[in-house]
Each structure stands twice: as structure tokens, then as C-alpha cells.
Amino acid sequence: MAQPPRPTMNQDSAFFWEGTLAGELRIQRCSECGRLRHPPGPMCPTCNSLEWDSVVASGRGEVYSFIVHHHPPVYGLETPFAVAVVALEEGTRIVGNVVGRDPSEIEVGMPVEVRFVPVDGEWTLPQWQPREE
Ligand code: ZN
User: Fold this and answer.
1) Which residue segment(s) compose the domain that 67 sits in?
2) C-alpha of residue 54 to centroid of ligand 1, in Å
3) 30 beta partners
4) How far is the centre of ligand 1, averaged over its atoms, from the C-alpha of 117 (Å)?
5) What's the domain count of the chain?
6) Does residue 3 lie in a domain region?
7) CA of residue 36 to ligand 1 center, whole Å
């Protein structure tokens, strides 16, 4: 079965992918200044601290911006599909597919919530679906 491209998983992002497997959207938080950041990285861009932990986000946010991909074909994905920058309630942003709505109906500011889509038993993809206010 065709699958979406496997994302990079490394020492910095392992906690995030372990979270999605467990049905949690984990966001990296600086232990020094408390800033949330995504994608995960080793150093806080605000205070340069290397110390961090994570919080479990609510999984709710809104479409901050988006594109609709028509071409070229992407193995494992049916075109057209929407990719959005989602502004999380917690105040940071994350990139993901918006599903459950025709891409032509997606709008900036649309409220969305996460859903976890198991891919192959080893990793789970967080996607975004419109939610009622
Ligand atoms: Zn910091």
C-alpha cells in the first residue's frame, strides 16, 4: 500500500513521534524561558538554552496559511491535497495536511483539530481536520 513519505526522526524529534504514536501532540518547551517551539531542535532560539522538556498540546488551532498541492505527484498522496501552517492554541505553529474538507473550501482562520493517522504501526501522522467552533 502506498504510504506518505516518512518524516525525519532523530534524537531531537523522537519525543514528538513517540507522542503521535500515543495519540498526543507533544510540543518542545525550553526549560529556561518556557518558549514553545516546533519543529523540535536542540537549542532555544530565544535564550540559547540546550535544556528542554515538552508539553502535550490540546490539538486545537486554526489555519494560519496553506497551499493546495496539485503537481507534481507525491508518492503515497492523492492530489490535490492541502498543506497548512496551523497556529496552535498554545502559541506555536506546526505544518500538516488538512483533511476532511475539499481543499477549495479551506480558509485562513479556519478552526482545526488534530487527528492521528496510523501509517504502518511504526509511526503515526498528525493531520488536521476542520472543527466546529
Ligand atoms: Zn529559552
Assistant:
1) 14-130
2) 13
3) 52
4) 31
5) 1
6) no
7) 8
Distances (CA, A) of 58 to 23, 51, 108, 130: 11, 23, 20, 15
Ion ligand 1 residue ranges (Cβ < 5 Å): 30, 32-33, 35, 44, 46-47, 49
Residue 80 lies in a domain: yes
Percent of the chain scoring above 70 in pLDDT? 98
Q: 50 C-alpha vs ligand 1 centroid, how far in Å? A: 8
Query: pLDDT tier at 8 (50, 70, 90 boundaries)?
Result: confident
127 neighbors 63 (Cβ within 8 angstroms): no
Is position 9 within any domain?
A: no
Q: Which three cell numbers stand for residue 35?
A: 518558549
Is there a domain that residue 4 lies in? Answer: no
Using the 8-state DSSP alphabet, how is residue 133 labeled? -
- Name the pTM for this structure: 0.92
Mean pLDDT value across residues 49-57: 97
